[in-house]
Amino acid sequence: MSGSLKDFVLKNIREMEGYTPGEQINDPEIIKLNTNENPFPPSRKVKEALSNEISRNRLQLYPDPASYELRKAIASRFGRSEKNVIIGNGSDDVLTILFRTFLNHEAGFIIPWPTYSLYPVLAGIQNVPCFKVPLKKEWKINFPGILEELNRHSKNKMVIFANPNAPTGNFEEPNHVLSFVKSNPVLTLVDEAYISFGGKSLMPDAGTDDYPRLMACGTFSKSHSLAGQRIGYIVAHEDLIFEMDKARDSYNLSRLSQISALAALEDEEEYQKRFETIMQTRKFLSSELRKRGFDFSESLANFIFVSPPGLSRHEGNAAEKYYTFLKEKKILIRYFSETSTQNHVRITIGKKEEIEKLLEATDLFLKKFL
């Protein structure tokens, strides 16, 4: 047999673009404000729980394959049953389980755009049709447009969107979302990765008798400083969870991940204080950037999505130049080069002292280019 080794690769994989995560630079001097991580380490109770588990010398044993205790704890938090919860290795894993269970080349889904860029990547991997409906002005979701798209493509089985959205940070009010869910004849997944920073969760409504087609997913990565442990979950109707469990990898959450998530849930008072700190820092950064001429709408996430002032003395894209300038100063933010986002950058809310250094560098940027 002759030809390229790539001929062995499935056509849909060859033709797709892979997901591009935020830059990870191994430099202790870097201020990392590009991947929406929580700036604070895991709480003391989480560290103690991990230490205790390691000292029990049980890492040679498989973890609970169903993460049953964690399911119960998450369900209890939202007044639900453990039958309404499935656990995964980060929210990316539970999204993959979702795609395996409900979508294929004949059963596609609809997303607003821009949104979390992994959704189209999962579509490419699973060979699933993905239809994008552009956001309205001020980055609001075009719910009527999504319903129109559903009517045009009747084989679609799901609508997916993040709330607050990524990378924009906009939050759709729960009553607007629930009204859409009522009118939407297919499944709706609301991705609540950033819900802890000012939004109201729909987990208590997901999969209830009033909203049986509503699903909501969450993660411990941003909220509970456990991005390195990879813990995600979906809350949905128990009939849907039962089917998704069939598509879940065995032992898909490590013993230490389960322990750390349970400890984090038990330390909610400490984490609520951290959420408040991050929201206050977000308010400070927003105020300071507006004073400097940056344009953006309100964010209820742990980041803001901003457009720098236009460049008066130099040609070029202000957002890209701002990103490049900060990188030279060892401050990482996120720039998305696609047409719909190319005039904006996303800035993660770090510690107050990190944000102050960002503002110092911003003043140098404005002095140089404006």
Topology readout:
Blueprint: H1 11-15, E1 31-32, H2 44-55, H3 68-77, E2 85-88, H4 91-102, E3 109-113, H5 118-126, E4 130-134, H6 143-152, E5 158-162, H7 174-183, E6 187-191, E7 214-219, E8 232-235, H8 238-246, H9 255-266, H10 268-291, E9 303-306, H11 318-328, E10 331-332, E11 334-335, E12 345-348, H12 352-369
Parallel strand pairs: 1-10, 3-4, 3-5, 5-6, 6-7
Antiparallel strand pairs: 2-8, 7-8, 9-12, 11-12
Helix pairs in contact: 2-9, 3-9, 4-5, 4-8, 10-12
Under CATH, the topology of the largest domain is which?
A: Aspartate Aminotransferase, domain 2
- The topology string of helices and strands comes to HEHHEHEHEHEHEEEHHHEHEEEH
Instruction: Name the CATH architecture of the largest domain.
Output: 3-Layer(aba) Sandwich
For the secondary structure, the number of strands is 12
Largest sheet, in brief, is: 7 strands, mixed
Strand content: 5-15%
Strand neighbour order, sheet with most strands: 2-8-7-6-5-3-4
Q: How many domains, as an integer?
A: 2
Q: How many angstroms does the end-to-end distance come to? A: 60 Å
- Gyration radius (Cα, Å) is 21 Å
Shape: globular
Going by CATH, what is the homologous superfamily of the largest domain?
Type I PLP-dependent aspartate aminotransferase-like (Major domain)
The helix count comes to 12
Provide an overview of this structure.
By secondary structure, the chain is of the alpha/beta class. The protein has 2 domains: 5-42 and 269-369, Aspartate Aminotransferase, domain 1; 54-267, Type I PLP-dependent aspartate aminotransferase-like (Major domain) (Aspartate Aminotransferase, domain 2). The protein has 12 helices and 12 strands. The chain has helices at residues 11-15, 44-55, 68-77, 91-102, 118-126, 143-152, 174-183, 238-246, 255-266, 268-291, 318-328, 352-369, and strands spanning 31-32, 85-88, 109-113, 130-134, 158-162, 187-191, 214-219, 232-235, 303-306, 331-332, 334-335, 345-348. The strands form 3 sheets. It has a 7-stranded mixed β-sheet, with helices on both faces. A 3-stranded antiparallel β-sheet has the order 9-12-11. Helix 7 links the parallel strand 5 (158-162) and strand 6 (187-191). Helix 3 packs parallel to helix 9 (255-266), helix 4 packs across helix 5 and helix 4 packs across helix 8. The chain is globular.
